[in-house]
Design brief:
The complex is a heterodimer of chains A (about 350) and B (about 350). Chain A is an alpha+beta fold. Chain A is about 30% helix and about 20% strand. Chain A has an eight-stranded mixed beta sheet, sandwiched between helices. Chain B is α/β, with parallel strands linked by helices. The chains are: A alpha+beta (about 350), B alpha/beta (about 350). At the A-B interface, helix 8, strand 11, strand 12 and helix 10 of A face strand 2, helix 2, helix 4 and helix 12 of B. One iron/sulfur cluster binds next to helix 10 of chain A.
Chain lengths: ~350, ~350
Amino acid sequence: MEKILDKKRIDDWIAALDNWDIQGPVLEDDIWSYQPVSGAVRLDHPNTKQSPKGLAFPQREIFFKFEQIKGEAPRLTQVVPDEQRHAVFGVRPCDGRGVPRMDLVFNDHVEDNYYQARRKNVAYVGLACNKPPSANCFCLSVGGSPVSTDGLDVQMTDLGDRYFVKAITETGKGLMAAAGKLFAEPSAADQKQVKQVHAEAVAYPQRAVRNVEEVPAKLKASFKSPLWQELAQACIGCGICTFLCPTCHCFDINDEVQSKAPLKGIRVRTWDNCQFPDFTMHSSGHNPRENTGARLRQRVAHKFQYFPENFGMPQCTGCGRCISECPVGIDIINVVNKVAENAA
Amino acid sequence: MINIQDIRETARDMLTKGEVRAVIGYRRGSRGMLAEPTFITSAEQADELVWDPTCFHNLSLYLVHDRKFLAHIRKNAEAPVAIVAKGCDARSIVVLMQEHYFKREDVYIIGVSCEGTGVLDERKLAKHLNGAQASNVAFDGGDFVFTTAEGEKRLPAREVMADRCLECRIPFPREHNIVFGEDKTGRQLEAPFAALTRFEAQGTGARWDFWSHHFDRCIRCFACRSVCPMCYCDECVVDSITFPVTTETTAEDKANRIRWIERSAVRSENITYLMTRAMHLAGRCTDCGECERACPVNVPIRLLNNKMEREAREQFGFEPGASIGGPSLVASFLDRDPGDFIR
Ligand code: SF4
Ligand code: SF4
Ligand code: SF4
Ligand code: SF4
Ligand code: SF4
């Protein structure tokens, strides 16, 4: 299904999606983030600071509540994600491509009930990048593209005063059908323009990981390379690169005790991060990934070697967030290229 | 004006003579005009050193990393490490020495004066550049001059400088082995604590709303702590590694272990984290601004640290990082202290 939507009518489309929670890019405190929007949706954002991964995989997920009154059996109450449906508008193609990668981890490899319960209620309405919004975009070199539809339910393309709107999935068709009257049939000129815009988007020069298909073997041969520590020397071990990444999915599970007598608390899953020094710290004090080099290797090799070995595709979608936001200039494109170049 | 060749020459010379193990400085990174930390160990690398208004980083953090590494491999330092340090960075080094983290002779301070300027604030700059990317920046004495694809763009320094630099009382590294650039102390463009004073002009209600909003936004990536040279504790209050588990450890022990701060990034835990950190920095934070710069979601952390700094200044006339032999705020007291609990 391909349609044309007058830009001025996007708010009417959103209004028609009345049983959906609408998330759109909002500029607040000088950063863009996905937030619930009601009236006007702005789609003039570069990419958002955080990816939309939190809708299906929130930073904090309560699994169950526990309670034990002395002398009685412990009581567990499962906390089930609510059934609210979310439609996220303005998803960039690289973040769209993050979705099937997260699905592989939580739906395919193992079945994670909490992820599935949320994921089935999220629809991703993408916005093609007519021009890469960041100098660190590198989607083209990792199998993606500024006009990729992978992972999206709808793809929108900005044609100046109107959007070219294309349904990719059944869910996407449903979203469009909910406001069928707002959409017009695209003319031959519209079709021509969208082709042209997409062709220009793809032709726009980007930074690049070189020969991505050869990278897994090269990284495999470089496990012991001294380059890892050299390249990671400045790393401070924070959570920025992984928390902002659309495909990082490591988590920790803890019991948070809220009262000791009676014993009461919750079991929670929270995002965790392989760059924290204590991520692999054993209780003996031994840490198998003992320096920033070993930890950078984990992050990079997971994206460019282990994931391709397991699932046949790089996990990184080239959004460039980890590069733009690293406070000390660690640059995943450089790291991959340098290590691969120097592989035995 | 600082001539970068002089800094390079100093580094080259010391490395050639084997006077230092390494020089920690700045080099051009792969992200447009931005500098990044570099660790050079051979004279040939000296030419990669740069000095410009994107040298934000407080490199003294890496002196802390180096110390931790040496402790880990149980070795003593064979030679000092040289480090490029701005005024605020040099004051951090002084605080670390006051706290006996390392000795004066372990460090060779290559001081750089900020002269008439300071470092850029990337957020302020982004607003002015409006999507354009700068590939280079230079300071010509009054303006920053940016090179972009659309041509040269000039911006008055005070519009794009970091708040801390606008308010900086001493933009000069008084503690140094060698120093480049003139001491332009007294050139501050804003009164000390100006941003804090503006903030505090609001009522309590507005301030609470402001902080509630920001405490809710923190994603607990701990970049603010991890980038801070003063946050050197082996086990930070937020870490969960303090609990040794043996075959004897029971489930009850595990459940009852002390956890000051839970992992959930929710307001209560975020407040505890950020307030604890601010308290731990009183008299130690030299306002290098790294925590606020590193924060990916723009939590205005500097206001918290500034508040503690001003408190120490007003109550005790305390200036963090003023001199190596001087007292440290929390490890000293005044005979004339009005509180009798301390005497
Ligand atoms: S990486 Fe590609 S898809 Fe992502 S924002 Fe940049 S151009 Fe768009
Ligand atoms: S690579 Fe950068 S963003 Fe990632 S942990 Fe290291 S310092 Fe933080
Ligand atoms: S690894 Fe970096 S560039 Fe790749 S998807 Fe994650 S944040 Fe984006
Ligand atoms: S705070 Fe002062 S010494 Fe530090 S960078 Fe700014 S002007 Fe220089
Ligand atoms: S205040 Fe910012 S840098 Fe610090 S933990 Fe929170 S989000 Fe991270």
